[in-house]
């Protein structure tokens, strides 16, 4: 699956190279082709041992890029073929030479004495070209089994292919078969079945990669493609969205080519209902809200905030960790990989992963993909305290999270609370209350919770605390050793009691620390029960 070109050699020297569209000679791209190592500048005629060589020799073949070399470019180009074509048509040979392009010859147009197509491949090699020899088959069933064998090997080949070409091997017979339209009858492309499916786009999300590249991802109605279920497909970039004219709600064709992330390749506009929604590509980063940037000549918007990608990764890693959602098998390395592949960028994305999203990835097989998806689904139910801790709010540790859960009972109540009310909670001082309040004020954080609930995360309410101090009034006096006075008051409230500042007949307990003041005398006079710090803490457990 490369880019077809034709090469002309005069007296053995490469003189002209041109693009070939539909069998016609196209643009002259000689200078760029000269930068490709596997295109010989001089033919090795000497090895052929032929005395009467023609002045001019024409060789055809394809310029392509190997899959591993394409990795570096995949953010900007849809596939290696587009990149190879774009590079060859570059006006600046320096750009072309910087790209690791290769050439495979498949046809020798000039008569150098070959009687068979297979001999062409032989001669091309002797001339100094790289060429895939293929296989000479003696009957059609052999052709089919060769095609099957290559289809099986397809993923492991260094380059992308979309099928096998079948040539009539006898050149004389090839000529006699003639031409139908523009294509010779003696040659046929035997394509592999495309890995395609039709489904609906439920939403479009943008994800920020490690380099800050912002990629739009179509969230699909789960669909089976080539034997696995997928739930998302890349839309590459803003230009691609414009080119496809894709809208949310559209019915589309998705394709899973080889081991790359599935892509939306076509919109079936005739199936529109009129309720489809335009997708507006954001101008600010969905992770850190920084204004996105895009150089004019590029297609990809980027978040210029260097700490953005790293921060997001750290948060996702924390989110899946033992102390938070505790998802088995979703360690930092896997998180990195999923972020790199644009499969996750927000915590909610984790819960939408399907086996088919994971199987194409390195390190994943069907079994491990299934295990991870199961492990994720198992953790969808989470106790409120753990959920609060998982949000990663500054100054909110496990202990504080438990207290918040006990007091508020639901994430909704916590979201709506005031700074003043927060300060009632044990462990929560002014700074912590401020931090919690601020966290819940942020639209992005509200959406984070909303999205988690939307994908089916269930937050379990805390078990009721025994309100062991219900109805009891406490007065504190003197200094306490292991707990501050305000913390002690909070504990009393949390357990249903009332802290009071002055002793009266209504006082049930006086908690006396060291160096108690006049309150102790008054309590004694009124017959109020006096307890020490240790006794109090025992009651307030
Ligand atoms: Zn950002």
From TrEMBL:
Enzymatic reactions: NAD(+) + (deoxyribonucleotide)n-3'-hydroxyl + 5'-phospho-(deoxyribonucleotide)m = (deoxyribonucleotide)n+m + AMP + beta-nicotinamide D-nucleotide
Enzyme class: ligase
EC number: 6.5.1.2
Keyword tags: DNA damage, DNA repair, DNA replication, Ligase, Magnesium, Metal-binding, NAD, Zinc
Leader sequence residues: none
Requisite cofactors: Mg(2+)
Similarity field: Belongs to the NAD-dependent DNA ligase family. LigA subfamily.
Taxonomy, superkingdom: Bacteria
Alphabetized HAMAP family for the sequence: DNA_ligase_A
SMART domains: BRCT (SM00292), HhH1 (SM00278), LIGANc (SM00532)
Lineage of the organism: Bacteria, Candidatus Nealsoniibacteriota
Protein name according to UniProt: DNA ligase
Residue intervals of the BRCT domain: 464-541
Stored InterPro entries: BRCT_dom (IPR001357), BRCT_dom_sf (IPR036420), DisA/LigA_HHH (IPR041663), DNA_ligase (IPR001679), DNAligase_adenylation (IPR013839), DNAligase_N (IPR013840), Hlx-hairpin-Hlx_DNA-bd_motif (IPR003583), NA-bd_OB-fold (IPR012340)
Role, per record: DNA ligase that catalyzes the formation of phosphodiester linkages between 5'-phosphoryl and 3'-hydroxyl groups in double-stranded DNA using NAD as a coenzyme and as the energy source for the reaction. It is essential for DNA replication and repair of damaged DNA.
Pfam families documented for this protein: BRCT, DNA_ligase_aden, DNA_ligase_ZBD, HHH_2, HHH_5, OB_DNA_ligase
Organism: Candidatus Nealsonbacteria bacterium CG09_land_8_20_14_0_10_42_14
An example molecular function term from Gene Ontology annotations: metal ion binding
Gene Ontology annotations of biological process type: DNA repair; DNA replication
